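Workshop exercise sheet. Pairs work together: one partner reads the sequence aloud, the other fills in the structure field after running the prediction. Swap roles for the next sheet.
Pair: D.N. / O.F.
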Amino acid sequence: MFFDQWEGLLRVVVVGTLAYVALVVLLRLTGKRTLSKMNAFDFVVTVALGSTLATVLLSRDVALAEGAAAFALLIGLQMAVAWGSARSPRFRRLVKAEPRLLLHRGEMLHGALLAERVAPEEVLAAVRSSGQADLSQVTAVVLETDGTFSVVSGEPVEGYDAMATVGRIG
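Structure field:
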């Protein structure tokens, strides 16, 4: 139960080190975007890479070359989605969620909260985390495409509106 044999430990150390090196090399070759959390696809790839690494480390049924191929496939698919999203508005709409306005000028948008399955208390927690105490001072709270909340204070200057891509419908 606590120890089977030295060969198993040696395999974990050797294969684990090589799989880790392969993953680091692939991530360095493909850039920072590969491990970003800009949208749900990025998050899924990050989790899948970790799961694949764990499987390669602990399963004798998965060879190192198969694990490296799985890393390359996941990273390649993520790069293809990111490439298509950056170049095609139609593809971007297909694969990415839109940010959603949950609070506007201090007022909760209850329809948006229900649609996004967010409790008002979660919005209030985001406001407090941003250092705000007075809802009337909050211009907006936005549920971003990666599931995080953005708390916006202040009025936009014409031509510099960070809220331009946020759906205004509550």
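Discussion prompt: Strands lie at 100-104, 107-108, 138-143, 149-153. What would you look at next?
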